[in-house]
Task: inverse folding
């Protein structure tokens, strides 16, 4: 296989395959250039010499290192979708959970989140089978629930590490978004969240179809029908987030997973911005370098249209094998995003070219989706073959099947993870609920469990 750039400099432990390479002289400049939420003033201002930006991406505080572990999750469908499409792999239906659960009672100043608080959500309820991902603050494990035999992806985070980096607000923010995602078929939903004195646990549906990046790197590029299908399902998910006044802000192939049938699962919500009304803007400099919109680089206030830029960048990559303004030199890439015209190689339909130009318009006010949001995307001629109601209810057959044999099929996970021994401490419930450093109170309200779960047949 030809040398292929790594779309994020610090893909590292998130990688499903070791197929990307980086020249030695840019390793340091890209080492922390991945999904980082940078502090005020970290982004390039108008007129800034972007040659200085290579070092600017190397930030000590990176909230996404806490959250963006390589989860292999399954989207939770809406009740309507569940009734019409009983095709979820290794999944359980979810009760409506659009709002956070009430705070659990505290004991002696700390939240008692062990067996006495929620006996159906504790580490000893699971057999932890394999490590399937790692990050700075924890691991993701394939786990089997002892009582019902269901498989889950359980993200386990170390409280001390999170508190040391002051990242607890981002953990709670991701949890908040996860709770809202249970109503859409292409967004991963939260099943349980609970904590012990030392650890936080996200229990999410398990999916093992692999990252879109994995398949794109293997096949280099997709034909238009396949790219259209993925783009449509992603657009549906993004449109739903926007309807909840959430801007996603980190769309890229690594955050797009496939379930066992080939449907899209959008995950990793650590950079989401909640509470942004249709006419409102935000200004935090965050995202992934290859997919940053011009207004973000210019440190201008931006709105939901930033997500449609990212959709255009991902669609371009699916069709052509690289992001639209890609350069191995990060500073040059920023210059390209800001100033270079979009170049579309030949061989694409007029509709595809028109959509790419509309989504990748450098002026966010003129970008497709800037006025009526998802409605504009749906109406574009490129998506004319898509029946959006059938798409939402998964009545359309995916153009590609990952061909997984079952939950034990880990061929889409990096052996670096799956061959690692599972720590016994992950599945233990401490005898004492005393917590050091006020760790429990720092995550007040973290625990969540639906009122009931109904098992779905695949």
Result:
């Amino acid at each position: 296989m030809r040398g292929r750039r790594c779309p994020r400099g610090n893909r590292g432990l998130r990688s499903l395959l070791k197929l990307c390479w980086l020249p030695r002289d840019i390793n340091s400049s890209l080492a922390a250039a991945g999904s980082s939420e940078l502090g005020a003033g970290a982004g390039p201002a108008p007129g800034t010499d972007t040659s200085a930006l290579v070092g600017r991406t190397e930030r000590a505080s990176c909230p996404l290192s806490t959250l963006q572990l390589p989860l292999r999750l399954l989207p939770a469908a809406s009740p309507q979708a569940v009734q019409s499409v009983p095709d979820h792999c290794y999944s359980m239906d979810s009760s409506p959970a659009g709002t956070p659960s009430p705070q659990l009672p505290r004991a002696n100043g700390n939240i008692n989140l062990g067996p006495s608080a929620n006996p159906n959500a504790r580490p000893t309820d699971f057999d932890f089978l394999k490590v399937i991902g790692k990050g700075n603050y924890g691991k993701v494990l394939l786990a089997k629930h002892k009582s019902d035999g269901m498989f889950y992806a359980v993200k386990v985070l170390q409280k001390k590490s999170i508190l040391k980096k002051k990242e607890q607000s981002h953990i709670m923010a991701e949890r908040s978004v996860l709770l809202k995602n249970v109503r859409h078929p292409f967004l991963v939903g939260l099943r349980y969240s609970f904590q012990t004195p030392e650890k936080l646990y996200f229990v999410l549906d398990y999916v093992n179809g692999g990252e879109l990046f994995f398949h794109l790197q293997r096949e280099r590029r997709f034909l238009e029908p396949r790219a259209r299908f993925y783009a449509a399902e992603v657009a549906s998910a993004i449109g739903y987030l926007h309807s909840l006044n959430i801007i996603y802000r980190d769309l890229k192939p690594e955050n797009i997973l496939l379930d066992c049938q080939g449907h899209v699962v959008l995950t990793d919500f650590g950079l989401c911005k909640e509470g942004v009304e249709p006419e409102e803007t935000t200004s935090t400099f965050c995202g992934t370098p290859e997919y940053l919109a011009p207004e973000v680089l210019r440190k201008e206030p931006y709105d939901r249209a930033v997500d449609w830029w990212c959709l255009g960048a991902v669609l371009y990559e699916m069709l052509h094998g690289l992001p639209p303004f890609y350069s191995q030199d990060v500073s040059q890439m920023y210059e390209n995003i800001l100033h270079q015209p979009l170049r579309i190689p030949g061989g694409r339909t007029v509709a595809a070219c028109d959509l790419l130009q509309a989504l990748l318009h450098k002026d966010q006010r003129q970008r497709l989706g800037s006025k009526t949001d998802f409605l504009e995307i749906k109406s574009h001629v490129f998506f004319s073959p898509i029946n959006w109601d059938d798409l939402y209810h998964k009545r359309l057959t995916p153009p590609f099947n990952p061909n997984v044999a079952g939950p034990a099929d880990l061929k889409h996970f990096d052996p670096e993870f799956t061959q690692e021994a599972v720590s016994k401490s992950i599945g233990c419930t401490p005898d004492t609920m005393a917590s050091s450093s006020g760790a429990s109170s720092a995550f007040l309200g973290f625990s969540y469990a639906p009122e009931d779960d109904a098992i779905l047949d695949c």
Remarks:
- The radius of gyration is 21 Å.
- Confidence is low (pLDDT under 50) at residues 1-88, 91-119, 432-439, 451-458.
- The longest strand covers residues 126-135.
